[in-house]
Amino acid sequence: MQITTLILGAGAAGMMCAAHAGPGTLVIDHAKRPGEKIRISGGGRCNFTNLYTEPANFLGANRHFHKSALSRYTQWDFIDLVARHGIAYHEKTLGQLFCDGKSTQIIEMLRMEMTQSGADLWLDCTLADLGHDGSHFTATLDHAGTRKTVTAQNIVLATGGKSIPKMGATGLAYDIAQQFGHTVTETRPALVPLTFSDQRFAPLSGTSAPARVSNTRTAFDEAVLFTHRGLSGPAILQISSYWREGEEIEIDLAPDGHLLEALKTQRQAQGRRNLTTELAKHLPAKLIEHLAQEIDLKGNLADQSDARLTDVTGHLRHWRLKPTGSEGYRTAEVTLGGIDTDGFSSKTMMSKSIPGLYAIGEAVDVTGWLGGYNFQWAWSSGWVAGTAI
Ligand code: FDA
């Protein structure tokens, strides 16, 4: 069978690409349904983009590569598409847009766009072999128990990253890129909870607090969630993309900067009030209980000198912790690193050395922050490749 374009992976990027690549496009996926990560994303409501998407929200070895695609197919273009399909949505927080209904609406929308563009979709289909004769790609496919050979002018690598292997994540895109002489940068789990070898936070499990989490590279102001295994919540997931084993993170539990003054004011007004009781007005009581020994929190407010209150708030504002690891690909939302962008055109997502070979989405060394940025990269890179084809 001869086709124009074979897209490997019916995820966010692959479907977006197929919606613009035109007739003669075949998308294959080894899963039984397309867009499984879209389905489970955002707690089933899909945080499909972010109003404030800009290049600074992305990581990758080349800090400029993603700019072109993000500026040519923007969050506003995707919002427009969602609106044209009559999908209701809302901003939850920090520019994060979610469906009012189910995330399957986004999958249905992409399926409709693919059908209109004349693209075919084969599910339950795996790639057994891939060759290239200098001008065409020949793929041997196993589709629902039958072996088929497909010849295509273009092949698009859209099989995503390694996160959540239970959902069928594989390193296929990396293997093929390497087969064709491309390099793959170091990959690691990102947007992932951080763990500690002891279960120190187990008693706090389920407690969350607004915080600023930082390291030497960056800082995020969002919630921290304590878990049996360690730390999670948006601020921790964000910093995990910038954290390396052996490094410390710092948690500021009073990021608005008013705690010291508030304590001094209360000391004046209600000196007989217990220090821990007063602190529990600003932070979860369980957390204060946990920290009471570490910081030696005791006595009434009136017992605390200015120096002591400065010391206490200093501890709360500069809580340094050294996680031992992360929960890994088992729970990571994305994969950091991937197909080296140096070998690809940022204008078309096509290989500079193998004409007709494209790479898009999470498989590429471009990783977004938490908050809809990763889907926006999938839409933008998919659109760029699809329209270039
Ligand atoms: P994606 O992973 O979507 O698709 C790859 C496709 O390739 C899959 O359909 C897979 O089955 C297929 N495939 C893989 N290996 C194959 C093989 N060997 N043969 C055939 N097919 C193969 N992002 C965001 O912006 N907002 C959000 O709300 C969330 N929420 C979220 C929740 C959870 C739990 C996770 C794990 C991830 C998110 N993300 C997210 C991240 C987002 O899901 C991710 O960045 C995009 O889905 C990436 O799109 P891709 O199309 O590149 O890969």
UniProtKB/TrEMBL annotation:
In terms of Gene3D superfamilies, this protein maps to:
FAD/NAD(P)-binding domain, HI0933 insert domain-like, Translation factors
The chain positions of domain RsdA/BaiN/AoA(So)-like insert read 188-334
InterPro entries according to UniProt: BaiN-like (IPR004792), BaiN-like_dom_sf (IPR023166), FAD/NAD-bd_sf (IPR036188), RsdA/BaiN/AoA(So)-like_dom (IPR055178), RsdA/BaiN/AoA(So)_Rossmann (IPR057661)
- Which Pfam families does the record associate with it? HI0933_like, HI0933_like_1st
Keyword list, A-Z: FAD, Flavoprotein, Signal
Q: Where is the RsdA/BaiN/AoA(So)-like Rossmann fold-like domain?
A: 5-387
UniProt xrefs under SUPFAM superfamilies? FAD/NAD(P)-binding domain, HI0933 insert domain-like
Its cofactor is: FAD
Leader peptide range in chain numbering? 1-21
Q: Which PANTHER family match?
A: OS12G0638800 PROTEIN
Task: Specify the protein name.
Answer: NAD(P)/FAD-dependent oxidoreductase
